[in-house]
Amino acid sequence: MATATATPPGVGPLLRDWRRRRRLSQLDLALEAGVSARHLSFVETGRSRPSADMVLQLADQLDVPLRNRNQLLLAAGHAPVFEQHALEDPEMAPVRRAIDLILAGHDPYPAVVIDHAWEMLGANRAVALLTDGVAPGLLEPPVNVLRVSLHPDGVAPRIANLGEWRRHLLDRLERQIALTGDAALTTLLDELSAYPAPQHQAGEPEIAVPLRLRTDAGELSFISTVATFGTAVEVTASELSIESFFPADEHTADAVRKYVARLPSS
């Protein structure tokens, strides 16, 4: 018996989905992209096949990630234009050097490199302070930093403000899903949401949501920043982010410096 295979969606329905995800009408998108609403309607319904330039023009207005722009081009019958390499490939050497400089420069404080799926691609030695006591299975590649953070056998039992930190991480993931429509991230969100955790009780407003971590040196407090390659025109580089943790007080700074000083040099 022959097995029926699902026909992949054409470029029209895909563009319509992206437009709706951005909460734009056909007229809104047409005006922003400099095309007629009639032509856009024909593209979305499949009555007109858009050129590669038109696909890219619409994708740019819709802020479609580079990975998905390639998918739109393929669905329209065009070749993808954005290259994609593994981080280990020779072409990615400048990116790797930049990452190494950032990680080394942030020492002795923790910093981690993640991809679009929240899998860890690199870290400096101070990250060992954050992952101390995590179940070994959670640290086997590929390491998902959200799972490590919120899993009951991960960092979660040591997070003093788990409800607040969990809400912060899930909010970030929800925003990413809204931006990308990534089904795998939706599955990850469902998994993380099912982990046991205290409800977040809103308190006094803070400048940034801290990570408050219980350690042998007492409770440490960190705030974090996220850096990306803002001019990337390659898929992998465009999806990388580097999260750097900074001590929120002098006690934390001193404790981290002493902890890292005891680690073997990398």
In short:
The protein has helices spanning 11-21, 26-33, 37-45, 52-61, 66-75, 93-106, 127-131, 145-150, 162-180, 183-193, 235-238, 250-261; strands spanning 111-114, 120-123, 211-215, 218-228, 241-247. It has 266 residues and is an alpha+beta fold. It is built from twelve helices and five strands.
Mean pLDDT equals 93
- The first-to-last residue Cα distance is 58 Å
**Low-confidence parts, pLDDT < 50 over ≥5 residues?**
none
Helix-strand sequence: HHHHHHEEHHHHEEHEH
Largest sheet: 5 strands, antiparallel
Total number of beta strands: 5
- Backbone structural class: alpha+beta
Give the helix tally.
12
Oligomer: single chain
Helix content: 40-55%
In which order are the strands of the major sheet placed? 2-1-5-4-3
Indicate the overall shape: elongated
Strand content: 5-15%
Rg over C-alpha atoms, rounded to the nearest angstrom: 22 Å
Structure overview:
By secondary structure, the protein is of the alpha+beta class. The chain is built from twelve helices and five strands. A five-stranded antiparallel sheet has the order 2-1-5-4-3. Helix 9 runs antiparallel to helix 10. It is elongated. The protein starts with 10 loop residues before the first helix and ends in a 5-residue tail after the last helix. The model has no long low-confidence stretch (mean pLDDT 93).
